[in-house]
Amino acid sequence: MTDSSTTDSGTEITTLATPSGDTAVEVTGTGTRPAIIADATSRHASVPIQTRNERFTSADVRDFPEVTGREASWKLTPVDRLGDLIAGALDGNRYDYTATEVDGVDVSWVTRADPRVGLAGIPEERASANAWTRFEGALAITLSGEEHREATIGRDAFGSAPKAAHTIIEAKPFSDAVVILDNSGPAHLSENVEILVGDSAKLTVVTVQDFDDDARYVATHFAKVGRDATLKHVVVSFGGAVVRVNPAVTLAGTGADGELLGVYFADAGQHLEQQVFLFHKAANTRGRVNYKGALQGAGARTVWIGDVLIGPDATGTDSYEQNRNLVLSEGTRADSIPNLEIETGDILGAGHASATGRFDDEQLFYLRARGITELEARRLVVRGFLAEIVQKIGVPALEERLHDAIEVELAGGGR
Asked: Among candidates 191, 187, 167, 192, which has minimal Cα distance to 179?
């Protein structure tokens, strides 16, 4: 006997009766949920996901089960502090922003029907899908022209009520630009950012999280990089009670290059999280992932998960990811989990690394032996540790501002 039904997302579920009387369930259609099968030992055993890009995706929050905190993508996140962003009602209306006026940079609101919506990626988890379901209009930043351009989008008016947002950043073929999403002020926000990098374009996207102390922010950045194009994606997280920014970058065109950078500084009680996914889909692509963070103060917590997948067609790939954390005081915790999957044997190289530790005593001794106080020596070590990432942004004014922010964090002593 066969029985069929269809979910809201268009996934067809077919139940088949076996000769033994058990049932086997086959899942087909637009969804990518793992199939449920039955055997002699388990009537409903889930087929495990084989690779990182096989996770279920949907733009409809109703297609996702309730988040319990035991899921792979949520088990290190304080879900009890993000409940309304994950599953509650969100205000998806437009918000006020400021933007520098630059030739070749268009910033405007577009509707959900804009053909670019969904081209870079589709949500893999419920908070992202909740924001996608609720947003009323997307802020579109369109970049054109071969001359180098820099644009800053100031966003400090999200407010304290639960809110959804959607942002599109499109770099036209052969364009060259830097876009800074400068986030500050109060926020209780779930956001999706789609980044489309056209063939032979060169784009840097910097997202700065400098929110108020009680802000809660979860965001997924989807990026699709075209042939011979370059994307530098930088996550800077200093302010906010809970900040979770998850970049998912697909090197879709032959010769695409992706550099994913991050710098963060967690104080007492702060939770700063990044779950990074770099997918080498096309041949001859290059990827570099480098995140660095510092922690000080009781209850300071950081989470970094780095997934790199080299697909079966990504021959000639050159990829490396690493995460480094510097612990400045007792009572902190840094989780660092690098993962690497390779589905072809014809690559140039791939690797990953992770380290979390305290001050290097030899460095401190070297500096103190030259008359530098311990406090100043510690400041110099931390600034030098994080400067490797900051100086790669390529925007001097922003780099200096971030150096000053690090000084402020150190002066605060984790309070």
From this structure: 167
pLDDT band, very low/low/confident/very high, at 375 (cuts 50, 70, 90): confident
- Give the separation between CA 113 and CA 242, rounded to whole angstroms: 31
Inter-residue contact 412 to 267 (CB < 8 Å): yes
Taking the C-alpha atoms of residue 261 and residue 160, their distance in angstroms, rounded to an integer, is 29
What does the pLDDT look like over 131-161, one tens digit per residue? 999 999 999 999 999 999 999 999 999 999 9
Neighbours of 196 (CB within 10 A): 23
Contact status, residue 267 vs residue 238, Cβ threshold 8 Å? no
For the stretch 31-45, pLDDT in tens is 433 333 233 333 334
8 Å CB contact between 143 and 203 = yes
Q: What is the CA radius of gyration of the chain?
A: 22
SS3 at position 54: helix
Contact indicator for 299, 268 with CB cutoff of 8 Å: yes
**Residue scoring higher pLDDT (22 or 144):** 144
Give the torsion sign (CA, 305, 326, 382, 323): negative
Partners of 222 in the beta sheet?
A: 194, 248
**Cβ count within 10 A of residue 55:** 16
Structure tokens that stand for 41 in this block: 């030992």
Nearest by Cα to 157 from 95, 108, 213: 95
DSSP string, 91-150: B-S----EE---TTEEEEEEETT-TTTTSS---SSHHHHHHHHH-SEEEEEEE-SSSEEE
Let me know: does 173 contact 198? Beta carbons within 8 Å.
Answer: yes
Spatial CA neighbour of 160 closest among 214, 207, 210? 214
> Rounded distance, CA 403 to CA 387, Å?
8
Query: Dihedrals φ, ψ of 134, to 5°?
Result: -95, -20
Q: For residue 261, how far is the Cα from the chain centroid?
A: 11
The set of residues, in sequence order, having a beta carbon less than 8 Å from that of 247 and lying 6+ positions away, is 220, 221, 223, 233, 235, 260, 274, 276, 277
Tell me the one-letter amino acid at 219. A
Could you give phi then psi for residue 376, rounded to 5 degrees?
Answer: -70, -35
